[in-house]
Amino acid sequence: MIRLESINKSFGAHHVLKDVSLTVDKAEVVCVIGPSGSGKSTMLRCINNMEDIGSGTISIDGQPVYRYERDGKLIVDSEKQIEAIRAKVGMVFQSFNLFPHLTVTENITVAPIHVLGRSRGEATDIALGLLEKVGLAMKAQAYPHELSGGQQQRVAIARALAMRPKAILFDEVTSALDPELVGEVLRVMRALADEGMTMVVVTHEMGFARDVSDRVVFMADGKIVESGKPHELFSAPQQERTRDFLRSVL
Ligand code: ADP
Ligand code: MG
């Protein structure tokens, strides 16, 4: 579903992603762990086309998003194609980024109406179904400021789902939440995983990574240092760098 081949990305002279290759199969849940500044968010932003890459190839569902030819020329498909690809991959952020002046339902329907061309009625039906799914049917008419952080984050997940994405990228979605609100968001994510959603989850929640993911990827200094099944990576990390990191967080 997602394929990154030898991605390189720099900000000026700062080489942030170094030959990163990653394949995520349909219905696979991949958790990405690693120290702050290792390039985890940048990698997700590249997958979702929010950043250009310096070299390498990214494809989603078999379609190239970005491609570089040997001479270093960037091949970007038309804006319209990029929009279509971006719509296939949802993203949920640490800061929920809901529109403050729109109700919960309007937050969820705005992109389906304006990007996918759904009718308001159809988009609203879908939104109400998704609110039910994330346990917030009673908040359909509320405004974001009337919700807790955990509720806002569940709305953000419903908003991503409303685009019927092929995959969802989660970037530290529980990091800004009060500890007692983390569980309700992780439960929604676990339910999505159980339904077969393809997910890439950057997280500090090692329990989630261990219990829910099919594969854990450890990143440091812009590289994928090691990856493996959660029980393998957590109980028998192969690299010293991974062992150091796990010692510091577990
Ligand atoms: P992580 O998510 O693992 O904490 P990031 O992907 O956010 O790491 O950042 C990786 C590195 O890239 C950091 O050194 C960060 O300062 C740098 N970086 C990220 N975004 C930008 C940007 N827009 N401009 C310049 N440097 C950036
Ligand atoms: Mg980050």
From TrEMBL:
The keyword RNA-binding does not apply. Residues 2-246 form the ABC transporter domain. Coiled coil: none annotated. GO terms for molecular function: ATP binding. It is a peripheral membrane protein. It is found in: Cell membrane. It holds the Pfam family ABC_tran. Keywords: Amino-acid transport, ATP-binding, Cell membrane, Membrane, Nucleotide-binding, Transport. PROSITE patterns: ABC_TRANSPORTER_1, ABC_TRANSPORTER_2. Gene3D superfamilies: P-loop containing nucleotide triphosphate hydrolases. Belongs to the ABC transporter superfamily. This is Amino acid ABC transporter ATP-binding protein. It comes from Kaistia terrae.
